Amino acid sequence: MSIFIKSEKEISRIRRAGKIVAKTLKLIENEIVEGKSLLQLEKFCVQIIESEQGKPAFLGYRGFPGAVCISVNDEVVHGIPNGRRLKNGEIVKIDIGVYKDGVYADAAKTFPVGELPDETRRLLKVTEKALFLGIAQARAGNRISDISHQIQNYVEAQGFSVIRELGGHGVGIQLHEEPMVPNFGPPGKGSKLVPGMTLAIEPMVSLGSSRVFTDKNGWTIKTKDGKPAAHFEHTVLVTDSEPEILTIN
C-alpha cells in the first residue's frame, strides 16, 4: 500500500475532524469520575462528535462493536465500552476516531480516576512526554524510525516498557494507512518524511513487561503481567517546518 500525501484541501478537512477529536477529549475529562460507567463515557463522546456533524470512526470498523475505544488499567487498547464502573485509583484510556467530510482524525489520552499511586501517575507523565518527543521528530527530511527511536529511548530511560506489538500509522484518507509508526527501533530507518504526510503517533507504555495478549473478546489488548499501561496519541501533519498537531485545541 502506498503512502498518501494529502492536498491542502484534504489537510483542511482532516484539521476540522481533528478539532472534533480534540474537543471530545477535552470535554470528557470532567466525566472521568468514580462510579461512571464505560457506556456512559461512550455515549457522552458520541453526543459531542455527532453535535459537530462528525461520525465515530471506530463503530463497525472491521467489526469493532464500540463507537470509541475505552480501556482500563491493564487494558492497553481496543477496550469495548460496557457497564463496568470506574473506581478510584484506576486509569482509563479514551481513544477517539472521527470521520467527517470524507477524512479521518484519531487521538487518545489516558486519564486518572481520582488519586493514583505515584508510579502510575509517573507512567502517564512519561508516556505523554514520549508522545511529544516523538512528534518533534516528525519533520520533513527525517525518517519514520527517528520518531520510533526517540520514544523508545525516553521511555526505557525512565524504567518503563514500550509495547512493541502495537504502534502508530498513517491516517487521513483512511483510518489506518501506511506507513506504520513503531514506538521502538534504531534511527534513520523507514520511509522518509515529506510535507503532506499525516501520522497518528501513539506511544503505548507499560509499567511492567512489554508482553501483551488479546482478550477472549477478540479485541482488547492487555498486558500479560496485569500491570497498568498508558496510551497517548495525536494526529500530526508533516510540514516544511514544525510538525502541526491536528488533534489539539
TrEMBL record:
SUPFAM superfamilies: Creatinase/aminopeptidase (SSF55920)
Protease keyword on record: yes
Domain named Peptidase M24: residues: 13-240
Reactions this protein catalyses: Release of N-terminal amino acids, preferentially methionine, from peptides and arylamides
Residue numbers binding a divalent metal cation 1: 95, 106, 233
Binding-site list for substrate: 78, 176
InterPro entries for the chain: Creatinase/aminopeptidase-like, Pept_M24, Pept_M24_MAP, Pept_M24A_MAP1
UniProt binding sites for a divalent metal cation 2: 106, 169, 202, 233
A GO biological-process term: proteolysis
GO molecular function, one term: metalloaminopeptidase activity
Entry's EC annotation: 3.4.11.18
Gene Ontology CC terms, in alphabetical order: cytosol
Keyword tags: Aminopeptidase, Hydrolase, Metal-binding, Protease
Cofactor notes: Binds 2 divalent metal cations per subunit. Has a high-affinity and a low affinity metal-binding site. The true nature of the physiological cofactor is under debate. The enzyme is active with cobalt, zinc, manganese or divalent iron ions. Most likely, methionine aminopeptidases function as mononuclear Fe(2+)-metalloproteases under physiological conditions, and the catalytically relevant metal-binding site has been assigned to the histidine-containing high-affinity site.
Listed cofactors: Co(2+); Zn(2+); Mn(2+); Fe(2+)
Regions annotated as coiled coil: none
Subunit structure: Monomer.
Family: Belongs to the peptidase M24A family. Methionine aminopeptidase type 1 subfamily.
HAMAP family: MetAP_1
Function: Removes the N-terminal methionine from nascent proteins. The N-terminal methionine is often cleaved when the second residue in the primary sequence is small and uncharged (Met-Ala-, Cys, Gly, Pro, Ser, Thr, or Val). Requires deformylation of the N(alpha)-formylated initiator methionine before it can be hydrolyzed.
Protein known as: Methionine aminopeptidase
Protein source organism: candidate division WOR-3 bacterium
Source species taxonomy: Bacteria, Bacteria division WOR-3
Gene this protein is translated from: map
